[in-house]
Amino acid sequence: MCPMPSAESTPASVHEPEPVRPTREDAVAAAGSELIGGPVGRRALPGTSWWTPVRVIALVAIGMFALGLVQKAPCYNGAWFFGASSQYTHACYSDIPHLYQGRGFADGLVPYFDKISGDMEYLEYPVLTGLFMEVASWLTPGSGSPQDQAQWYWMANAGMLMVCAAVIAVCVTRTHGRRPWDGLLVALAPAFALTATINWDLLAVALTAAAMLMWARSRPLAAGILLGLATAAKLYPFLLLGPLLVLCWRAGKWREFGKALIGAAGAWLVVNVPVMLFAFDGWSKFYTFSQERGVDFGSFWLIIAQNTADPLSTDTVNTLALVLMVLCCGGIAALALAAPRRPRFAQLAFLIIAAFVLTNKVYSPQYVLWLVPLAALARPKWRDFLVWQACEVAYFLGIWLYLAYTTSGDAHKGLPTEGYHWAIGVHLLGTLYLCVVVVRDILMPERDPVRRTGGDDPSGGVLDDAPDVFVLGPVARSSPRASSADGAAAGPQVEWGADRAGGGSS
Question: Where is this region: Disordered (predicted)?
Answer without folding.
Answer: 1-24, 477-506
